[in-house]
Predict the structure of Amino acid transporter.
Amino acid sequence: MKGSKVLRENLLAILTMAGVGAGVALGFGLRARESPWSPRDVLYVKYVGELFLRMLKALILPLIVSSLVAAVGSLDLSLSRKIGIRAIVYYMVTTIMAVVLGIILVTSIRPGRSGPPDDVVDVQARSRETTTADTLMDLVRNLVPPNLLEATMKTYQTVLIPPEDPVERNNTHKNDWRVKGEFSDGTNILGLVAFSVVLGVTLGGLKEKGKPLLDMFVALSEAMMVITGWVVWISPVGVCFLIAGQLVEEKDISERFKSLGLYFGTVMAGLIIHGLITLPIIYTVFTKKLPFRFLANMSQAMVTAFGTASSSATLPVTMECLESKNHVDPRVSRFVLPIGATINMDGTALYEAVAAIWIAQMHGKPMDVGSIIGISIASTAAAIGAAGIPQAGLVTMVMVLNIIGLPAEYVSYVVPVDWLLDRFRTMINVLGDSIGAGLVYHMSKADLDDIGSGASDTEESSPGDSRTDVSVIEHKHQQAFS
Ligand code: ASP
């Protein structure tokens, strides 16, 4: 009887995992029938997955803005500050731990000792020339968007224009190239997060006067969560076709792994250690609870992260799992998760460090203490700056390569296996955000109880309890105001 109950409660997660299995089988089956597939056929295979992804993406913007404003606005300033600081400290500490782990692994395994594989150098790099200073300044610039409507669609970036003459190009330093600023396609989530926090703090401070607008954001965030509840039921099919489409699209998979296997294995070892050992231990040490149930309750979010390769697209599902299954107070989850999904990427940070050192090893570049420290800082910044979208880490890696004096084109080395590594590192990114939210909730429980009744007495339900208490945040925010 117990077995059937567990099955019923976890039906969606089980179906989604079956979707992954079916996607892999379908992908390889289709490859066996015909290879390579034409771009149009790939398009057809991907179609259903694409629709699922579009639905999730449609939720990101309203969910992030409304959740942050509602959560921050319903806390008093000192409590939001406390929760915010706890979350940021957790993000920094775990990201640095991930980077250090990556560096230890890559310097002891030395995956780049046999030199560069010759079959990947021709892969087209998806990189642009920038200096580290430009990338860091862009990160801060994007925190302050000049136009909020534009921020929903465009992100600012500095572009360097090299001299047209190739000789002059080679003889001048990048710092002397012409600098241009431009807005490129892609939501500036960082800017919207920053503004939402400011708006939430302001509305909370306005008390009664701010209440109508705050109520609107509370209602919007609840509505987004209800829609999320519907969309997640499409995940089994969506994830299946996303994965099948990707497999059909990839060229000679086994060849890629032959030459990049050691690098792939090093990143994977780091991700597994960080996700299955480091983070759960941190959870257990601080909450004095075993992490298994908490992790099992997050399985739907994990599979969605694997299927979509995007922590932003997974955000609605992560929130749903945390609130309805792990019973994290929405004032905490809706505050820290959107920020976490944007800046906290342990998997990406680890991978950036491993990849950069692997490339340096292949080119026989010695690593001194200064370079290792530089790589650690740059990998952390690159992970913060990477958007929660597929393969964003590939773009910010240019900065890490820059730090150790390697050209941006070398990013091409990691491209062949990046589509798969990206899925695994996104899972770790989402796991890091989830454990962070669980920890911050645990630490802030007493403070939250002081301003309103707790969401529930138990922090975790049995796996699969998918009740979403949509009235909780509303109720708490009423209480905070009364
Ligand atoms: N795809 C990752 C994420 O969304 C970012 C990356 O590492 O490329 O979390």
